[in-house]
# Entry
Amino acid sequence: MSVVTQERDYYAEIFADFEKATAGNGQGWLQPVRRAAIARFTELGFPTTRDEDWRFTNVAPLAQIAFQLTSDSRVELTPREIAQFAIPGLGDIQLVFVNGRYAPTLSSTGLPGHGVSVRSLAQAFKDDRDVLEQHLTRYAAYAHDAFIALNTAFMDDGAFVHVPRGRVVEKPIRLLYVSTATADPIATHPRNLIVMDEDSQAVIVEDYVALDADVYFSNVVTEVVVGQNSVLSHYMIERESHQAFSVSTLRLEQGRSSNVTSHRVLLGGALVRNNVHPVLAGEGSECLINGLFMATGSQHMDNFMRVEHASPHCDSRQFYHGILDGRSHGVFSGRIIVHKDAQKTDAKQTNKNLLLSQEAQIDSKPQLEIYADDVKCTHGATIGQIDQDAIFYLRSRGIAEDAARALLLFGFAGETLERMKAEPIRRYLETLVAQWLPEGKLLEEVR
Amino acid sequence: MLEIKNLHVRAGNHEILKGVDLKVDVGEVHSIMGPNGSGKSTLAQVLAGRETYEVTEGEVLYDGKNLLEMAPEERACEGIFMAFQYPVEIPGVGSAQFLKAALNAIRKARDLEELDAMEFLALVKEKIKLLGVDEKLLHRSVNEGFSGGEKKRNEIFQMALLEPRLCVMDETDSGLDIDALKIVAKGVNDMRSPERAIIVVTHYQRLLNYVIPDYVHVLVDGRIVKSGGKDLALELEEKGYAGIEEELRAGAKA
Ligand SMILES: Nc1ncnc2c1ncn2[C@@H]1O[C@H](COP(=O)(O)OP(=O)(O)O)[C@@H](O)[C@H]1O
Ligand SMILES: [Mg+2]
# Structure
C-alpha cells in the first residue's frame, strides 16, 4: 500500500487520469463543476482537528492512504452472495452497486409506478439530463467541504430517483451499496440524487454493506430535493467493514410544507463521519432527524448535524442515541442555524449516550446560531452508564443480570427504532441491533 | 420460612441496621412500622438482594437456605418479591415485554412451561382487571411517566402476576388516596394464603385498617424495639413513635 505525503497533489493527479478515462461519456456539461471542485479540494486539503467542525475527528489516517478509483476494479457478484443482506418484506425496488458501480443484474427496479424514475446516475446522465442539470450539485456545497468537493469531482455513479408530482411510491426504494475486497484500497464516491416533485411521497433506504473486512473509503453525497407538500422518509443503514473509512453527507432541500424524516443506524466503519444537513427552505416545513450509533473496539463515529431554518414556521426535531463500548469514540455535534427571517422556528435537539466501558468516550456539542428573535430552540445531552437501579429492578423480578442488561440496552436503542414507521425496516434493524449487543442472543427469548 | 438473625447492615460508612431479628412463617402477615430513616427500606432491599448494602453481621435463612448468598434473580425465582417504595422508570423497555420475561424466568425456575404470547396476554388481562390498572400501561415503558399511584398499583399487579411465596411491600400505601389504598389493600388480601407470607412495611397505620396483620414490629434506628399483635399498630397511631420510644426509655430506666 503506497503512502500519500501530498494529498492535494495526489488527488489532482488522479483527477487528471479520471478526466481522461471519462472523456466523451456525455457528462461534459459537468466538467466545469468537477474542475472547480477539484481545484477547491486542492486549496482546502483534508480537514484537520484545528477546524472547529473536525475538532474531535482526525482524518490523517485516511489522507495517507493512496486510494484508487474504482473504475478498473469491477467485481461480478451473484444474487446469492448478496442474499444475506436482504430485508424481508421490503419489496423489490432495489438498485445494487458493487464497489460504487451500478450492477444491473443484481438490481430490480420493480414497477415503481407511472413516471417514477429509479435508475443509476450513470444512466440518468443519458436519460434525465434536464432534471440533473437543474438539481445535481446545486445543494451540496463543495466550497467549504473537502469531502463534498472530492465527491463532486469524482462522482460518476450512484442512484437517481425522481418522483413526479402527485405520485405516492408505497414500497420503499432501496439503494444497496456493497463493498468487496480489492487488491488495492479503493475509494468510491457514490452520488445519489433524489428529486421529489410537489405532493409526492416516497420511502428511500440507503444501505451500505461489506462482503469482506477490507480497507476502503466510501465518500457518499446524497442530495434530496423535497418539493412542496411532499413527504419523504429516508433511512440509512451503515454497516461498512470495520476497517473502512465512511464519510457521508445527506443534504436535504425542503420546500414549503414538506415533511422529511431521516433515520440512520450506524454500526460499521473504523472511522465514520455522518453529516446530515437539512435546509428548511420553504415555510411550514418539518424534519425529524433520528439516529442511533453503536461503536465498539476502536471505532470512531462522528455525527455532524446541521439543521438550517431558512423560513418561518418550520419545525425540526433531532434525536440521536449513542452506545459506546470498548475504546470507541463517539461525537455528536448538533448545530441549529436559524436565519433572520425564520420566525416561529421550533427546533429541538436531544442527544443521549451510554458508555459501556471505562475507555469509551463521547464528545457532545450543541451549537445554536440564532438570528431571528421569535424562536423556540432547546437542546439537551446526556452521558451515562447503564442504570444500576433499573438492573436491580429487573433482576428482582427474576430476570438474569445479562438479560437485564440486554433489555436495557435494547430499550435505549429502541427509543430511536420506535420512531421508524416503515415496519419491515424497523423489524430488520431491531434484529441487527440485537445482534450487535454482547448479550443480544438473550433478547430472542424475551422479545 | 424466613429467619433474620442479628442482621447488621451498612451503606458506605453509615450503619443502618444494628441487629435485627425477625421470624416469619408461611400463612402469616407481618407489619414493620417505623419512622423515616429507621431502616425499613434497607431491610426490604437487603431481602431482595440489593448489592449496595453491605451485611456486616448476622444471617438470613429462607427455607433454611442462606439467602444472602443468592443473586437477586435467584431470590425472585425462589419466590421472593419486593414491592419497591420507589419503583424504577425504565424508558424503552415495554411493560408487556418486561412482564413476560419476568414471568417466564420464574416459571422456568419452577419447572413450569413457559407461556406463549397468547397465554401470557390472557393471564395478564385477568390479573390486571383485579387491580384496576389500565391495560394501556402494557404498551408503555416500565413505570415511565406513571403517576405515583399507578406505580404502586403496578407493583401489586406484578406481585399478583408472579405469585411469590414471600411478599415484601415497602410503603406501598404511601401517597395513595383512599380509593387507590382500598384497591391495593384488596390486592394484598387476595394474596393472603396459607402457602404465602407477607411483610407489610409501612410508615402509617392507615393500610392496616384494611390489611389486618398477625404481627406488628416497630423498627427504630435500625433495631426492632417492640413487637406485638395487631393492636400495637393502634397504640402507635395513638402515641406516635416518640411516645413508644419514650415508654421504652422509661421502661429501660425503671
Ligand atoms: N445507599 C445508601 N447509602 C447511604 N445511606 C443510606 C443508603 N440507603 C439508606 N441510607 C440511610 O440509611 C438510613 C435508613 O434509610 P431507609 O432504609 O431508606 O429508611 P426508611 O425506609 O425507614 O425511611 C437513612 O438515614 C438513609 O439516609
Ligand atoms: Mg423507606
Remarks:
- The pocket of magnesium ion (ligand 2) is lined by residues B 40-41, 85, 170-171 (CB under 6 Å).
- Chain A touches chain B at residues 387, 389-390, 392-401, 403-404, 407-408, 410-415, 445-447 (CB under 8 Å).
- Chain A is about 25% helix and 35% strand.
